[in-house]
Write a structure and sequence with these properties.
Mean pLDDT: 78
Largest sheet: none
Structural class: mainly alpha
Number of helices: 7
Shape: elongated
Helix content: 55-70%
Order of helices and strands: HHHHHHH
Number of strands: 0
Low-confidence stretches: 1-28
Strand content: under 5%
Distance between the termini: 96 Å
Length: 195
Amino acid sequence: MRSRPGALAASEEEQEMPTCRPRGAEVRDAPPLCLDRLYREESPRLLNSLARRTSSREDAGDLVHEIFCRLTRLGTAHSLRLERPQAYLSRIATNLLRDRAKQASRHMTASHVAADENILAGIDQQRLLESRDMLTRVEAAMLKLRPRTREIFMAHRIDGFSYAEIAERTGLSIKGVEKQMSKAIAQIDRLLDRD
């Protein structure tokens, strides 16, 4: 069986992975790979290469792991023989990066919404002016309240105190706080209706 550089050449007869060839041995009769040695020798190179091409070193580490998982799956099916394992690992890395890019592209395409499909809500200038006007009128109405009534009203509506807490702070009874709140609400309503 002829094999291209970096291509798999599987031997059907061998079921176990024999020991690794010594470094510098002939490449023509490429013996089976020693995955452990290959991992120790090639993972730093792959990690550095992938770290430059991905967004983070962690992603690169995940890719290196996936590369050797794929190689291991191939090696368990057959006794794996490669003439140029570095080239084969680089090809797996390139393919993994392409797969991730395609997946990211599909994800972005699926989540994209064209601008002409949706009505984009802008700032409603009239509503903004009305809100500012109402705020000015409420402030003016609150300034016309007696100081104690205004303090009780703001303690309840703005600060979120209960009538009992306001009564304790001001020395009034709960009924007295209720009466002050009723006065404040009625006077603010009257002043806002008048404008």
